[in-house]
Amino acid sequence: MTWPPSSTAFFPSKTRKVAFDYDVVIVGGGPAGASTSLHLGRTQGIRADRVALLDKAKFPRDKPCAGAVSQLGIDALRAVGVTITVPHVPMCGVRVLMNGAVGETSCAMGIVVRRLAFDAQLLDHARTLGVHVRDGEALSGIRRVPGGFQLTTSKGIVTTRLLAVSDGAGGPTRKLLGISEPARKGHLYVLDTAALATDTGVARGFADFDLSILEDGLQGYYWDFPTVINGHPSVSRGIYHANLSPSSDLKRALGRALALRGVDIEKTKLRPFSTRPFVASSTLALEGALLVGESAGIDQATGEGIAQAIVMGAIAARHVARALRTGLRSFYGYAEEVRSSRMGRHMLQSAWLANRVYGPWGGPARRLLLTSSYARAAGMSWYNGQSLPWSTKARLGAGLVLAI
Would 205 be classed as within a structural domain? Predict the structure, then answer.
């Protein structure tokens, strides 16, 4: 696209004006979609009654996710007047486990929520704002029309000027828009159990990351996070596989990790889920449409995406608002802003780190995380969205050399 754009791009002619049902339709009612809608109304001044949010599920609905929200996401929600009021548990620190050894660091990491309640709370805020929350309405078709889109849903036809795609890695919108990615999807299993006597770290509010599964040929970790279910202390358990290359049986590795903790995998309800990593080649925008949150990609090293989705929603809202005010439909600059933001830089760094921590040459990095409280504290600062100074990076680099 040439710059500056022609005057007709800023001032569309009358012949190009079309009556649309909405100015923007957001597909997907999770944190990315809710954040985009809230930022449109509360920070960008877009009329909420010109915004619709579609989701095939009827809320409240559950989602297979550990539910960790870092301080980055908590702060981003506060910026639009949202205080998390649903039941949640603070994460008071991290434990890195590997073959019986444990490295432990106390630090504020954020909270663990139940997505059933958390997502519903965010949508309630959107409804209160005046957004048309059309849950229980599935998207089945997309057709471009002059100046916008015609959407076919389970309840009829909807037209919109702009489209925000926030229905995740496996949602229909990416496929309907013809978006494919070369990066491999990650995979995970999630389950919840009562707290057991073996959950010594979780009982103190620590999040456990067990790297022992790397010996099974996987690239990721097993986790135990503190959570609360129906008012009772519980444990969110699961396994995350970044899937950097074809490898061994994920479910079998999970079964072994659970057995060490006294949990029989055959007596649990497993919830599978796929993730899409945020990498340099990720598609972030098309003409008239942009991708937000997990649809664009998540942190490949940690498998986290809630806080990133909330922050990305704020960036998306700025570009949607500009498009509505200028008539531009190219979302010029959205991808650049996402990638250059602190959140985007962290996710690109994470994609680089995933290979160097989980790959065959990642032994020194794993040993450093296990043995160095400094490395763990730096990692948690990074997890919470903070930039690490060069002095910290230099010290970590020296630690890697010593760990070889």
Answer: yes
Q: Which two tokens mark 29? A: 């009612």
Q: What is the pLDDT of residue 216?
A: 86
Tell me, yes or no, whether 259 and 292 share the same domain: no
Distances (CA, A) of 236 to 64, 186, 189, 233, 271: 10, 19, 11, 10, 12
How far is the C-alpha of 380 from the C-alpha of 357, rounded, in Å?
16
DSSP 3-state of 324 = helix
Where among 222, 244, 275 does a domain terminate?
Answer: 275
List the domain range (segments joined by +) for residue 218: 91-109+184-275
Tell me: do 176 and 219 sit in the same domain.
Answer: no
Give the residue ranges of DSSP H helices in 163-239.
172-176
Q: What is the CATH number of the domain that holds 256?
A: 3.30.9.10
Structure tokens at 371: 């043995």
Q: What are 17's two structure tokens?
A: 């004006």
- Rounded Cα gap, residues 49 and 350, in angstroms: 38
Token pair 């074809």 is found at 246
Residue 163, burial from CB neighbour count under 10 angstroms (0-12, 13-18, 19+): buried
Q: Report the alpha-carbon distance of residue 227 to residue 230 in Å, rounded.
A: 10
Alpha-carbon span 88 to 83, nearest angstrom: 12
- Looking at the structure, do residues 251 and 374 belong to the same domain, yes or no? no
CA distance 389 to 287: 38
Position 354 in a domain: no
Number of domains in the chain: 3
Rounded CA-CA distance 284/307 in Å is 17
- The fraction of the chain above a pLDDT of 70, given in percent, is 95
Nearest to 299 by CA among 272, 315, 276: 276
* Domain co-membership, 259 together with 216: yes
145/233 same-domain check: no
Instruction: Give the integer Cα–Cα distance in Å for 162 and 26.
Output: 9
What percentage of the chain's residues is helix, strand, coil (to nearest 5)? 40, 25, 35
The pLDDT tens digits of the residues spanning 8-50 come to 333 333 334 569 999 999 999 999 999 999 999 999 999 999 9
- Computed from CA positions of residues 7, 8, 14, 17, in that sequence, does the dihedral angle turn out positive or negative? negative
